[in-house]
Write a structure and sequence with these properties.
The chain is of the alpha+beta class. It has four helices and nine strands; from the N terminus they run αββββββαβαββα.
């Protein structure tokens, strides 16, 4: 009888913890034309700088992927792998990744759109979504690798 009470009570503690985790969508758009970018690896570091191993996810056919926010984190930085980042160049002492710190709360409440310095594509903020402008490397950029 006692084991049955424990088993029936356990979901009351597990389910609220799972429901309290916040998630947001990252939407990768081609900066040149605004089309979704599929199969792009997105790196996210929660906190105010790119330190340690990032959380990673790959965008689907619609250019989106979902990240779960660790408890207590209120900011993040992000980048795409093997693709040009369109937010702008470096500032002395800070990389373009660390220079662009985003608020988790702002993304969750109103949505956030990153800068686009590679093209004319624009996007409107969508609640719960961080929209990120990227573009494929030009052939000459690929030669540097």
């Amino acid at each position: 009888m006692r084991l049955r009470q424990v088993v029936l009570t356990l979901p009351l503690f597990v389910v609220p913890a799972a429901l309290s985790q916040q998630q947001f969508t990252v939407k990768a758009l081609d900066a040149r034309n605004g089309h979704p970018l599929k199969n792009v690896r997105i790196d996210i570091w929660f906190g105010e700088r790119a330190s340690g191993v990032p959380r990673q996810s790959t965008t689907g056919p619609d250019g989106t992927t979902i990240f779960t926010v660790p408890e207590g984190e209120r900011a993040f930085v992000t980048s795409g792998e093997f693709i040009a980042d369109c937010r702008g160049g470096n500032v002395a002492g800070k990389s373009y990744i660390d220079r662009n710190v985003y608020s988790v709360d702002e993304v969750l409440t109103t949505g956030t759109v990153g800068k686009n310095q590679c093209g004319k594509a624009t996007a409107q903020p969508i609640r719960g979504t961080f929209t990120f402008f990227l573009r494929p490397f030009h052939w000459w950029e690929k030669l540097h690798d």
